[in-house]
Design brief:
- With 424 residues, the protein is an alpha+beta fold.
- It folds into two domains: 26-56 and 89-259 and 296-416, Outer membrane efflux proteins (OEP), CATH 1.20.1600; 59-88 and 260-295.
- 64% of the residues lie in helices and 11% in strands.
- It contains nine helices and four strands; from the N terminus they run ααββαααααββαα.
- It has a four-stranded antiparallel beta sheet with strand order 1-2-3-4, with no helix packed on it.
- Strand 1 and strand 2 (76-88) form a beta hairpin.
- It starts with 22 loop residues before the first helix and ends in a 15-residue tail after the last helix.
- The model is unreliable at 1-14 and 417-424 (pLDDT under 50).
Length: 424
């Protein structure tokens, strides 16, 4: 496998990333370093900070006033005034706003989880495609070696007078075609490796690993259980569900915003000494307590805010219903891909490939004894290569489909029920 790897002049950044990395290393690196995921995590952290802002009281108001012309009173001239005031919204308004912010934060957390699953899905997809490519190179090289052996057999038979020269030419043409295909496959290793590195957030020049495909499964999944899991665990649906709850509390907060609010205040007036001596309370500083009521005279503004919140709630509810239908459709399509790939792999591995190998062995033996034509040998070998590549593609397609299924459901397949060998 090492001779099939692309030679890259710049090695990967080794800050915590192993040289002989496996799939779990790439997944862990992607969770910690993928740029898109870092941005999603930052958005979630922003929503957490917004909770404290939503539940906080309005800022305390401090004021200072200087008497340009002091007002003379019996106890002395009033020189300056200091005041402090605090507005208090209607009871429950801040609580509803804070609860709405908490649900928004939970929705952002679910979106972050969905982004994490999407990143892991992309890494696995790139890993499986790279593994498929590397295995295809191995199969093609093996058949190229067989073709070269057939070329030698045809040449010896021609020299012995038991074969025609066109058989040698046919073998050479087959070898050249396989060699060209092998070169094309090896040339695709670099973009496949870059796709994996990009999905994981690694430098594009990171050396490609030796990837592998998981074993093919005979999958048996209950559709009803999967739909229940989809509705319960899909992070995108959960995010919209949390957004619905947030908007419900925003509707209530908008309704409460039409209620009167209170403002509590305290004034302190600095007063100088009285001009007349012997005046009682001379220079005494008065303190005034204030209570103000904010009267919402413009009810149209409150109504518009409440109706806007209700419309946003309806929009999110509609989006959740639409997404649920779309996800159910995606689930059906993915399950078809899983079943179809499993059937194809079973057909190639258990039925067609053993017979194709027998045909190739028999054709080669018959050709060496003069009971078969060289065209039959080439046809048998091409058929065997095609079936081996088809089986490999079926295994890769099933791995990709199961990867999409886990990302869609938001849970590993092992959680859907007990396993029996390679069967879910």
């Amino acid at each position: 496998m090492l001779c099939l790897m692309p030679v890259v002049s710049v090695a990967a950044d080794q800050d915590g990333f192993p040289e002989q990395a496996v799939l779990t290393d790439y997944l862990q690196w992607a969770i910690e370093h993928n740029p898109g995921l870092l941005g999603s995590r930052a958005n979630y952290e922003v929503s957490l900070h917004n909770i404290d802002q939503a539940g906080a009281l309005p800022d305390l108001r401090l004021a200072w006033g200087e008497m340009i012309v002091p007002v003379e009173t019996r106890v002395g001239p009033q020189q300056r005034i200091f005041s402090v005031s605090q507005s208090l919204p209607w009871f429950g308004s801040l609580g509803e706003a804070e609860t709405a912010a908490q649900f928004r934060a939970q929705a952002a957390q679910s979106l972050f989880q969905a982004d994490s699953l999407a990143v892991e899905q992309g890494v696995r997809r790139a890993w499986f495609e790279l593994a498929h490519l590397q295995q295809e190179i191995i199969l093609t090289r093996a058949h190229f070696d067989l073709s070269r052996q057939s070329e030698d057999i045809a040449l010896r038979a021609y020299e012995a007078g038991s074969a025609r020269f066109r058989h040698v030419l046919q073998a050479q043409m087959e070898s050249e075609n396989l060699n060209n295909r092998l070169d094309s496959l090896k040339d695709r290793l670099i973009p496949a490796s870059v796709s994996l590195n990009t999905a994981a957030g690694l430098p594009a020049s990171t050396v490609a690993p030796e990837a592998s495909l998981p074993d093919a499964y005979q999958v048996s999944l209950v559709m009803v259980d999967l739909i229940e899991t989809l509705h319960r665990d899909n992070p995108e649906l959960e995010s919209l569900r949390r957004q619905e709850e947030s908007h419900r509390h925003l509707v209530e907060a908008a309704r409460l915003s039409g209620r009167p609010g209170l403002t509590l205040g305290l004034d302190y007036i600095m007063t100088g000494d009285a001009l007349m001596p012997g005046v009682d309370d001379s220079g005494k500083d008065p303190v005034i307590a204030r209570l103000a009521i904010n009267v919402p005279l413009w009810s149209g503004k409150t109504t518009a805010r409440r109706l806007a919140s209700a419309s946003r709630l309806q929009a999110v509810s509609s989006d959740r219903s639409r997404l649920r239908l779309d996800l159910e459709q995606q689930l059906e399509n993915i399950l078809y891909r899983v079943r179809d790939a499993g059937r194809s792999w079973q057909l190639y591995d258990k039925n067609l490939l053993p017979r194709a190998r027998q045909i190739l062995t028999a054709s080669t033996s018959d050709y060496e004894t003069g009971r078969a034509t060289f065209d039959e040998v080439i046809g048998a070998r091409e058929n065997l290569l095609g079936l081996e590549l088809a089986r490999l593609r079926a295994a890769a397609d099933q791995a990709l489909a199961l990867n999409d299924l886990e990302a869609l459901l938001g849970a590993p397949l092992e959680s859907f029920g007990p396993t029996n060998g390679n069967e879910y």
